[in-house]
Every structure is written in structure tokens, then in C-alpha cells.
Amino acid sequence: MNILKNIFGQLYICFTYPFYLAFLFYRNLIVFYKNPLLLLVDIKIFFYYIFNYSLSIQRYEQEKARLKILDDSCLIYGETPYFSLEKILDNIPVTKDSVFFDLGCGKGRLCFYVECMLNVKSFGFDLIPTYIKTANKIATKHGFASKFILKDIFAVDLKDVDILYVAGTCFSKEQRKKLLNKIISIRPGAWIISTSYGFDHSSLKLKKELDCWFSWGAGKAYIYQVMAHSSNTC
After folding, report:
1. Closest CA to 222 of 214, 205, 36, 118
2. Domain with 153 in it: what CATH number?
3. Which of 30, 65, 98, 194 is a plausible cystine mate for 162, CB 3.0–4.6 Å?
4. Is residue 114 within 8 Å of 139, Cβ to Cβ?
5. 56 lies in a domain?
């Protein structure tokens, strides 16, 4: 019985997911209308990974294997659509002097968005070499100032960040604890955006909880501001 449920569940996902992707693209059209350059960049990213990477699962698995990470749940990949990021950032006082970090940036889309739409300096960090190399190549080609850095997100220096985005939906409990211990060291006033789960610490004040759409479906985005530092750790 369980086997049949799993089979029908997989068939349901395979049938409905293309329609869900079409829905996400439709919702993104207003963002593309506001800045056509973002559409051009998105098309380039899409076709590069369709023809050079995404269809080669073995290549992706080889890159992951070289990292020798015992718990690779932090590498499970999902994306935040532009219209969802727009909704989230509408609740944060972004200025031209803000610095945006995307921990686990994947293909770099969110960094391209904040530079295109908000003229904000952005940095993306990821452990998959192809993601970083390709994003930097696209940034150079189209004159973006965004930088993409090959680095473990738990080793990133966060002292200069104003807005931190982390889609750690699939992080383990230990990884979340490790991340929180880094976040609470960020200077007061900085903003933290987390997807799917929230943080519980006296140094973080929850400013907003939003219902958003993501590549994996409906979910939550939590917006925090770093308050005066406390000596407590999680």
C-alpha cells in the first residue's frame, strides 16, 4: 500500500510541477517588465544550465563528492522567485549603501536581482564551483558589480553585511545552530532573512513573518533585525 502511495505521489508531482513552474514564471513577468536586463540574465542562466550542467547529474554529484562534506543537506538546492524576494525586501529599509549577502547563492539569481532592481552591492557564496564560475562570468559579461565567492557559508565573515539572506530550508538542526551562532555576532541593525524556519535568540527581533512562494512550494520567510548583542549563545 505504501509503495502505491509513493508511486502515485511521484506521478502527481511529475504531472503538476511543470504547471507550478509556469505559475512562478507568470508571477515573475512584472519583475522582468520593470527591468528587462534581469530577464536577459535569467534566460542566459536557464539555457546554460539546461545545455551544460543540469542534464549532467553526474557532474553535479562529482562536484559535491569532491567537497567531502559528511552532512551535505546544506547543498540541497531550491530557489526564491523574484516576486517573492521583492515582497520580502519591501519590508526592509534598503538603501544604496546596503550590502547584501546570499549564503548558498546557487546560480546567483538573487544577487543579480538586488543589483538590477535596487542598485545594491551584493555578494553570493556557495560551495559548488560551477555555480560560482558561471555567475561571475555572467556578471562580468553584463557589467554587474556583484561578486560570487567559492566558500563554505559557515566560514563567511559577516561583519560587513547589512542584509543577509539564507535559504536553509533543508539544514540540519546542527547546521541551524552553527548558523545562528554566526548570525548573532553581526553588528546591531543588520537584517536577516530566513526561509522555512525562524531563529530564537534575544539578539534577534522578529520584524515580519511572510507567506511566500518558493521553487519547492508555499512557505514562510522570516525577517529579523539584529539587536544589541547578548552574551548568550544558542
Report:
1. 205
2. 3.40.50.150
3. 98
4. no
5. yes
From the list 199, 223, 219, the residue with the least C-alpha distance to 211 is 219
Q: Is residue 219 part of a domain?
A: yes
Would you say residue 3 has pLDDT above 90? no
Q: Scanning the structure block, which residue is given the C-alpha cell 548573532?
A: 184
| pLDDT tens, residue by residue, 40-63 | 999 999 888 877 765 555 666 666
Burial readout 207-219 (b: 16 or more C-beta within 10 A, e: otherwise): eeebebbbbbeeb
C-alpha cell at 77: 538546492
Pairing of strands 121-126, 191-195: unpaired
| Helix spans in the chain (H) | 2-34, 36-52, 57-67, 82-89, 109-118, 129-141, 173-183
Cell reading at 218: 508555499
List the domain range (segments joined by +) for residue 53.
23-226
